[in-house]
Write a sequence for this structure.
């Protein structure tokens, strides 16, 4: 079974939230817009990282590749998110989405939480990261997507440009698949708004 990183977990939890809102789970219905929008936000941040991975694929030498790889480390990636105006959006969604789990945990009357304790922990960790603004979200990429972490931390030991490009392709493939999941979830949540 492949390792699921936090982004995969959040996608899986999003699917579970979606099924719960379909069943009329009141604690979640109120957050349909936020649930759809957070998927859009993750899709957008993935696209920013994918642009950098594609730039690595287009490099012609190691120094050029290293320069782009450096932009994937926490600080520069965080700066990229800030430049794209994502700073306060991350915080707002972190605060809002934390309430989903908190209200579900409080059982809202006699309604049980749609998530297991472990899933709630994953969700709270993700909310913590969002509330730490773009810095923590930037670190999620190097910590959670193994191939990006390998690129950022191990490239000094790799002299083969083709190996670096292959690692970038693998990371891009993971993010592209996840983007499709988040895009699908976003559309499903926004569709519920019309109901």
């Amino acid at each position: 079974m492949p390792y699921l990183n936090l982004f995969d977990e959040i996608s899986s939890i999003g699917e579970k939230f979606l099924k719960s809102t379909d069943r009329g789970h009141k604690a979640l219905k109120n957050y349909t817009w936020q649930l759809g929008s957070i998927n859009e936000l993750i899709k957008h941040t993935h696209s920013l990282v994918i642009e950098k991975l594609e730039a690595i694929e287009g490099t012609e030498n190691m120094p050029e590749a290293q320069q782009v790889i450096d932009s994937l480390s926490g600080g520069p990636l965080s700066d990229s998110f800030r430049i794209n105006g994502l700073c306060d959006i991350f915080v707002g969604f972190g605060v809002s989405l934390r309430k989903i789990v908190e209200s579900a945990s409080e059982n809202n009357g006699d309604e049980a939480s749609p998530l297991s304790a472990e899933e709630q922990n994953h969700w709270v960790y993700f909310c913590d990261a969002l509330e730490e603004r773009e810095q923590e979200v930037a670190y999620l990429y190097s910590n959670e997507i193994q191939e990006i972490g390998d690129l950022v931390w191990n490239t000094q030991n790799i002299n083969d440009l083709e190996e670096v490009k292959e690692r970038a392709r693998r990371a891009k493939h993971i993010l592209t698949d996840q983007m499709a999941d988040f895009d699908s979830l976003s559309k499903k949540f926004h569709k519920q708004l019309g109901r």
Q: What stands out?
A: Residues 19 and 25 are 9 Å apart (CA to CA). The chain has one domain: 6-193. The chain has a mean pLDDT of 84. The first helix runs from residue 6 to 22.
